[in-house]
Design a protein that fits this description.
The chain has helices at about 25-30, 115-125, 140-155, 160-165, and strands at about 5-10, 15-25, 40-50, 55-70, 75-90, 95, 100-105, 110, 130-135, 135. With about 170 residues, it is of the alpha+beta class. It has one domain (about 5-130). The mean pLDDT is about 85.
Length: about 170
Amino acid sequence: MEVGGFLIGFEGLELGKHNYKFLIDDSFFKDLEYSEIQEGRIVVDAVLTKSSSLMEMVLDFNGEVIVPCDLCGENLVHKIDFEESLVIKTGANQYQDDGLIILENGETEFNISHYLYESISLSLPSKRAHKHIDGEPRCDEELLTIINSQKDADNNDEIDPRWAELKKLK
């Protein structure tokens, strides 16, 4: 995933703290073919601390994204507000895991765009639905009526007699 402005060159950096700011907006998400996030605007404040053996980066994410509601498919605004740490080291083999990235020896820069996208995606709840009021989702009523009527029609379909016999085995 190559997105401009997310490349961090660390070869010439002095030891100590370095501040970065990344803007993740609609163009970032549109460049990703597989993104379920449709739109968004997130500011990521990052502090990279370089030491002689490794680099640690603290990322502070603030903003919002638009994802489809799981119930009605309409746009749902989700607030993004979390902090995360990342350790970057160099080694013989390239490796990436939760909060740890090992770059091959000799690399002088790192594209952080994929890590930012993954962090945002993983911060989203697994079930995305409009907020509930009195136990009912605040989705578009007309759309939910259409969806539910389609479900009822699917449930009323006549069952193949072979499957009906299998249901008797319960």
